[in-house]
Amino acid sequence: MSGRAGDSPLAELASNVLPATSGGIRIILSGHVQGVGFRPFVYRLAQRHGIKGRVQNQLGEVEVIAMGSDDALRQFQQDLIQQAPPLSRPRIDDVYDVDGVAF
To answer: Phi and psi at residue 34, in whole multiples of 5°?
Structure first.
């Protein structure tokens, strides 16, 4: 082992988990997103797109941390709005890039 971070067994394992073109984003949604089945919807949608992450309520908003390929993340964001549960009225307030999140 040379001592460089890229040569560690952990780095090698991490490189096999997600494709090289993958990244992570933090999405903040507001609108009518609580009490309407929105979090379970986000979970199912993420599974369908092959995205890892988490979803949680935060004071009238929903925070989604999503890790996946760039294409999957783009489509996921579109589908969050276009395929939302009938009683919900979500809107994306902010999207931030995130690094170093492991799931």
So the answer is: -120, 140
